[in-house]
């Protein structure tokens, strides 16, 4: 392997690492949003005897966010497998 090939491999590794770091940051951000939504739902559910429309909307949004997060993780894993 000459210097040019070695440099190409190193560049590819560096780009892959940058991609993994960006995905990790995005996943952490989504996890923070997910946690805040769960906390809001929990607070609303415990502070009132009946679950109102707002709480149901938060539950629905939480489920949608969870599905999107799982899709992002699956897409990331597939992208990393393909290289």
In short:
The chain is mainly α and 83 residues long. It has helices spanning 3-47, 53-82.
Polypeptide structure, described:
This protein is mainly α. It has one domain (3-82). The protein has helices at residues 3-47, 53-82. It starts with a helix and ends with a helix. The model has no long low-confidence stretch (mean pLDDT 78).
What key attributes describe this structure?
mainly alpha; 83 residues
Main beta sheet strand tally, sense and closure: none
The proportion of residues forming helix, as a percent range, comes to over 70%
3D shape: rod-shaped
Strand content: under 5%
Q: Using DSSP, what is the number of strands?
A: 0
The count of helical stretches stands at: 2
Supply Rg.
20 Å
> Can you give the mean pLDDT?
78
Order of helices and strands: HH
């Amino acid at each position: 392997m000459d210097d040019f090939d070695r440099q190409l491999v190193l560049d590819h590794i560096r780009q892959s690492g940058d991609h993994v770091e960006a995905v990790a940051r995005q996943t952490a951000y989504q996890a923070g949003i997910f946690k805040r939504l769960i906390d809001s739902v929990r607070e609303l559910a415990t502070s009132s005897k009946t679950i109102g429309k707002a709480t149901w909307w938060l539950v629905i949004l939480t489920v949608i966010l969870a599905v999107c997060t799982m899709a992002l993780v699956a897409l990331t894993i597939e992208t990393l497998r393909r290289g």
